[in-house]
Amino acid sequence: MKLKLYIYVLILLSIATVSAQDVSFNAKVNKKKLGVNERLRIDFELNQDGDNFKRPDFEGFTIYSGPNQAVSRSWVNGKSTYSKTFSYILAPTKRGTFTIDQAEITINGEVYKSPPIEVTVTAAVDKPKDGNDAAYIASEKIHLVAEVSKSSPYLNEAFTVVYKLYVSPETSVSNWREIDSPKFADFWSQNIDEKQFKVYDSEYEGEPYRYVILRRTVLYPQKTGKLNIEPLSLNVSVSVPTNRRDIFGRFLTQNANITVSAKNRTVNVKPLPLDGKPDDFTGAVGEFDFTVKTDKRSLDASEAFQISVEANGNGNLKLFELPKPNLPSKLEVYEPENADRVRTNLSGMSGLKKSTYTVVPSYKGKYPIPPLSFSYFNPKTERYERKTSDEIVIEVNNGPVDSEPEKTTTTTNGINKQQVVAADKQFAYIKTTSNLQSIAKKKFFKSELFWALLLGPFLLIPVAMIIRKKRQAYTSDVQGNRIRKADKLARKFLSEAKKNLGNQKAFYVAMERALHNYLKAKLNIQTSEMSKDRITRLLKERDVDGANTIEFISLLESCEFARYTPSSNVAMQQDYDKAVRVISTMDKQL
Description:
Largest sheet: 6 strands, antiparallel
Structural class: alpha+beta
InterPro entries: BatD
Oligomer: single chain
Pfam family, one: BatD
Helix content: 10-25%
Protein name: BatD family protein
Distance between the termini: 73 Å
Number of helices: 8
Keywords: Membrane, Signal, Transmembrane, Transmembrane helix
Strand content: 35-45%
Low-confidence stretches: 9-20, 407-423
Number of domains: 4
Organism: Dokdonia ponticola
């Protein structure tokens, strides 16, 4: 009696659980715009079983096939999921915009309705698309989009282009490869590589999609006017569902390789304004701080000090020149050393641009370093801004006093410069007298060199005989030469695999040859003898660590699987790194 009561309670709980689940009843079409000579597939999906399904009238269409029913159940972590689908293939009867009305179904005594869908039928297309063609289905489900952060940047103002690959939920991508990359001829460009691809949920033209960010590129336009951003094109390996079903009613999938391209994008680059443009403007665009400083303010003559001219902030730091200091002529100035520390991220360049001048005073006195001015264009305020440093006075305490009065000349830019006066001992390091000694003539006959040249060939005869004997032994060692040749080939093919990263077929062919030749060199076996069991046994006999053996076998399996399944660039890089690590470790153990 108690057993029956428990069963009733469990039944009631299961019914309550099912009824508590939200009922989902949706309608999906494979396209919302088609030619009058194409076909339309519509699926009515629900997550609970129901009765009395009523299809809509399909105004403007005739039923080409259907209804086809598919039911699936699954258990994941103790939770059951249920899905039931009613599918129709429709043929348009005329052009126009049509609304597919709601379908109805009864679940647990309640009537549920699917949402209406609007579909546009155009004139006949030149080549009707086959709804069962995997390449056509993939082209409708995969889109490459280039998003531009600014459509009207200023000249030399940073903006970004982000390339996103959108994929519909029912489509899976196994691999992609770039076949054409944008050149960015009119831009200074910097790619920001994605360290790890992350999948995001989003929408594309009102439909649910997933996307990954393939590349982000920072651009600085170098010309004004309308500039074209060339498209990025990819070859994508995909798996897509078709209209065909298996014996259980599930949709069959097909693999296809398609080419997708981002559309051309155009930006209108604005020139920098002429109003208020400073005469000393050198092309800096952004937001900057400007400083001029010295490492010493007081020193002796002939000692050196340094002047640092620095601009730091956000902007085109690599695309302009810093102003040069105007120094008194009695200060000897060397060519500047540039020590830029610039990093590029999504907001553009940021960091420090620095020029350091080494200066040596020749005479005692005080030397003023005039203020230095730096101008730049700020795109946020849309006007030119200026930063000016303070005057710096350098005091030289000990040293010769300039005996001649300073003579000044006025340069074309209005800055007075002093005439350079040479010190008496400026060239004291150059010797004007010499103490050369004559070399006595020596006789060659019976000299040390004479006897060395005479007896040398006779001494080399036994050395040549020893080398010849060793060479004959080396040549007769057939097995050793075969091992050395295999080892050399293993290194060669491993290097070839590295060069072919990104080309799956060539990479794994070279990788497999490298692994086989490595085994030939280390285990002295031929390719026909390379079974996994034999390799494992031989490595174990030579005291190779079991973990390394397992990784080596997995590399051989990766090379075999690559013949039948696509592989990503990331997977190829991981296999190459693993091969280098395993071979290096096994070399030490063997």
